[in-house]
Specification:
The chain is built from four helices and ten strands. It has helices spanning 6-19, 59-64, 80-88, 96-100; strands spanning 2-3, 21-27, 30-36, 39-44, 47-55, 69-75, 104-105, 114-115, 119-131, 151-163. The protein is globular, with a radius of gyration of 15 Å.
Amino acid sequence: MKDIDFMAVYEGVLKQIKEGAFLTVKAGKQLNTMTIGWATIGFAWRKPIMMVMVRNSRHTFSLIEKAADFTVSVPTGEMKKEIAFCGTKSGRDVDKLKECGLKSAPSRKVVSPIIQIPGIHFECRIVYKNAIDPARLSREYDPIYPEKDYHTLYFGEIQACYEV
């Protein structure tokens, strides 16, 4: 495990997130991971921040609403099958980790674990959340929300960033 400066890797991380990464949340005894394809990394409130989006219809939403943190595991190896599975199946119906042969590993600074894969891992403490208000969203994005299941944005202060 090697600590890294998130700014030194953010371009590659964002490129990979477009292909898929794992957002993992633990609330109480419940654990779920889902695929994300959108995120932002930068600074807000003079802090390093990763912003992720979770649709209100997703099982992960019910967990992240109760959680104080989340992790994002960005694979550096071939994980297309696992990314596709975790992006199309619900944690309400299936244990995605078990079905994909993935394992979680304890994080270093937050409660939610990382996915034990070769990659870059972010541990984030939720510092702000905001539900998308469709009245304030440009109409050009309507096709992204045919079911009106809008995202909530979660701003996580990056507590740790490292490569495994």
